Amino acid sequence: MSKIIRTELYKLRHNMGFILLMLISVAIYGGLNYMSETSADAVSALTQMGSFTFLIPVFAAVATASIVCDDYQLKTMKNIVSSGVSRNQIFFGKYITSMLTTILLLLVDAIITIIICGYFKGFGSNGVVMQQLFINIALQIVVVLIFNTFSFVIASLLRSSKSTIILSTILYFLDGAIFAGLASLTKIRIIDGLSLSAVENDINNFAMSSNDYLILCGQLLLALLLLMFACMKFKKSEIK
């Protein structure tokens, strides 16, 4: 599996599309933080990090689409499968690479946020308990990784970069409406309250409830089940 991970990371380092994605990500976060309010009562640098994960799931979906789908579109997946590496190692090697890439995006944008907000706003806590802040940041990272798992599953099943990016973006921005629609169609009201975006909003507002933690655990379980399903499909699918 380590060979697959090293290979995928090597391809990303030499992928101009991924480099451009990183630059766009830095420009967006740098610009947003630079243009944000800088008055004395403005949110501090660390508090500003409470929302630094904005748009990261979309950026991560683009990278994940490249990691998973490029080998299908370039007709090189058959060579990888026939190289003697097990399909489990291929599947989870790519999955781990996509997660590492997402964490890299989070890390880079967190650093940009700290530097810019720290310069203009200082590093005071602004009344926010630091322990609570770091817990919120950790929870946001979990939310982003769950979204990325969904993107990975979509990419693995559809094997199309465009479809993965489009569906992942729709899922990120409209998952509340999607769950509301499913609740309306199935008449199962509890589905209406499973929106991951609602949990993310509560995290940003430091308003996490016990119900939010239950939803987060449920979404994590769903993501893992879908990942196992996608793995089984990959192991049984014909590679052309």
Describe this structure in words.
Pfam families: ABC2_membrane_4. It comes from Copranaerobaculum intestinale. This is ABC transporter permease subunit. Keywords: Membrane, Transmembrane, Transmembrane helix. By secondary structure, the chain is mostly helical. The protein has one domain (1-236). The chain is built from 10 helices and no strands. The protein has helices at 2-13, 16-35, 45-48, 56-73, 77-81, 87-121, 130-158, 161-186, 196-204, 210-236. Mean pLDDT is 81; it is low at 38-43.
What series of H and E elements makes up the topology?
HHHHHHHHHH
Specify the helix fraction band.
over 70%
Roughly what fraction of the amino acids lie in strands? under 5%
Rounded radius of gyration (Å): 19 Å
What's the mean pLDDT score? 81
Structural class call reads mainly alpha
The structural domain count equals 1
H/I helix tally: 10
The overall strand count is 0
Transmembrane segments: 12-32, 52-74, 95-121, 133-158, 165-185, 213-232
Pfam family, one: ABC2_membrane_4
Keywords: Membrane, Transmembrane, Transmembrane helix
Protein name: ABC transporter permease subunit
At a glance:
By secondary structure, this protein is mostly helical. Helices cover 77% and strands 0% of the residues.
List the topology elements:
Blueprint: H1 2-13, H2 16-35, H3 45-48, H4 56-73, H5 77-81, H6 87-121, H7 130-158, H8 161-186, H9 196-204, H10 210-236
Helix pairs in contact: 1-6, 2-4, 2-6, 4-6, 4-7, 4-8, 6-7, 7-8, 7-9, 7-10, 9-10
Keywords: Membrane, Transmembrane, Transmembrane helix
Transmembrane segments: 12-32, 52-74, 95-121, 133-158, 165-185, 213-232
Pfam families: ABC2_membrane_4
